[in-house]
Amino acid sequence: MRLLFDYENQQKQSTYLPKCDVERTELSLKRKQKLHLPVLCENEISRHYTELAKQTHGVNDGFYPLGSCTMKYNPKINDALASLGGFTEIHPLQDLESVQGCLELMKQTEKALCTITGMDAMTFQPAAGAHGEFCGLLLIKKYHEMRNDLKRNKIIIPDSAHGTNPASASMAGFKVVTIASKEDGCVDLDALRQAVGEDTAGLMLTNPNTVGLFDKHILEITQIIHDAGGLNYYDGANLNAIMGIARPGDMGFDVIHLNLHKTFSTPHGGGGPGSGPCGCKQFLADYLPGVLPCLTEEGYAWHQPKQSVGAIKAFYGNFLVVVKTWAYLLTLGSEGIRETAQNAVLNANYMMHQLKDTYDLAYDQTCMHEFVISLNKEKHDCNVSAMDIAKALLDYGIHPPTMYFPLIVHEALMIEPTETETLETLDRAVDVFKKIMADAMANPENVHQAPLLTPVRRLDEVKAAREPHLRYIWPDDE
């Protein structure tokens, strides 16, 4: 489709601005080139953005089984509540007396999330999951510094971890120690015991992990770290599989981050806004960043932790995301939260069982909210790759699963159907997966050409990454 700049026609315009009633002033800055702005009439603008909307794919358009990202449908009532003027028209510096309801909402949400996770305190300052990871690692670092135990500079991370884990640990000033997973996809206890020592600051772990498995040795894992003097950090990216059923705090974790923009009802993706609150046990609460809402005799006020690591974001985090989470929690209640997790696990196991005779499972055992299939055999035998299957799904209106992750599975596709999909949707998706595999085995060249029906055909992924076109080039700019 054409870009806005391709509509250039100075004879057409759409303006509703009144004539300027103040003296015009020329800016001192001078452009070296002509300022290019498209000039369009209103109907062309409307048609252009409608066409863009038609060419996008989201959870409102169809099945979106993007593993480990939980691209689920989010109730629109939560967006409506977060759009109320009492929430959208406040200012972070206005008098506390005028925002008591907002502070109470934050405190109620903190209490509910601490109950779900087994933590004692929580900050909403972090703006994303990785930001929450960074915050949690600062708490761990502060804990060891306050004990003058400065030799603890290493964070242990399994090789199945989310990619942001080692990056966050490095940014917080730690050295990363990677331990391999066993053939069953879980932590190798012997490797973990060999890795710990007097320099161990902590462990970063996702449970269920990135291959969708709940580690049956989780209590032993966290105890090994505690016995070595370290702390346990829980990556809450996969909490939707266990919330209301098991609590990270009961598993031995001291710090946690959550993805409110994923698990608790804010659309995931599109650049934000996100929210990755960081929770902790009581002995770490004095290190939390920023200020926290607390109830006093005079009402709600802000409390500054005594040994805070300092602010990690302006003011109090992305408040409207917290509002959506609050609405989501109130709507579901404790029983609904538990049922959400149960449905996520049920949907994943149903779909995995339906596909296990057609696709090779990376781990042929009961999964949690997601599962991983491997196209390694097909890649070797007939040059049909995970990329081919993923691209072919686009022609059926299904967003591809995550490709080539986790790295410990070759030719991986990670599938997460989420808790919000119906049996009919899952059955149709299973039929599509099977049909694509049958077509690929009969004629591999068919999937090499996919997708055929999308606005843009298969891209050169390497060139797109190394030579991206990030701006429009005008003819007179070349």
Can you put this structure into words, describing what you see?
Helices cover 36% and strands 11% of the residues. The chain is of the alpha/beta class. Helix 8 (218-227) links the parallel strand 4 (200-205) and strand 5 (231-236). The chain starts with 41 loop residues before the first helix and ends in a 12-residue tail after the last helix. It has a seven-stranded mixed β-sheet, sandwiched between helices. It has helices at residues 42-54, 76-82, 85-88, 100-117, 129-146, 164-171, 189-195, 218-227, 248-251, 319-355, 376-382, 386-394, 423-442, 444-449, 461-466; strands spanning 121-123, 154-158, 175-179, 200-205, 231-236, 255-258, 278-280, 292-296, 299-303, 360-361, 371-374, 402-403, 412-415. Helix 5 crosses helix 6. The protein has two domains: 76-332, Type I PLP-dependent aspartate aminotransferase-like (Major domain) (Aspartate Aminotransferase, domain 2, 3-Layer(aba) Sandwich), CATH 3.40.640; 335-465, Aspartate Aminotransferase, domain 1 (Alpha-Beta Complex). It is built from 15 helices and 13 strands. The mean pLDDT is 92.
- Mean pLDDT reading: 92
Number of helices: 15
Count the E strands: 13
Q: How many angstroms does the end-to-end distance come to?
A: 22 Å
Q: Name the CATH class of the largest domain.
A: Alpha Beta
Structural class, from secondary structure content?
A: alpha/beta
Total individual domains: 2
CATH level 3 topology of the largest domain:
Aspartate Aminotransferase, domain 2
The share of residues in helices is 25-40%
Q: Quick one: biggest sheet?
A: 7 strands, mixed
Radius of gyration: 25 Å
Shape: globular
Second rung of CATH, namely the architecture of the largest domain: 3-Layer(aba) Sandwich
- As a percent range, the share of strand residues is 5-15%
CATH superfamily of the largest domain: Type I PLP-dependent aspartate aminotransferase-like (Major domain)
Low-confidence stretches: none
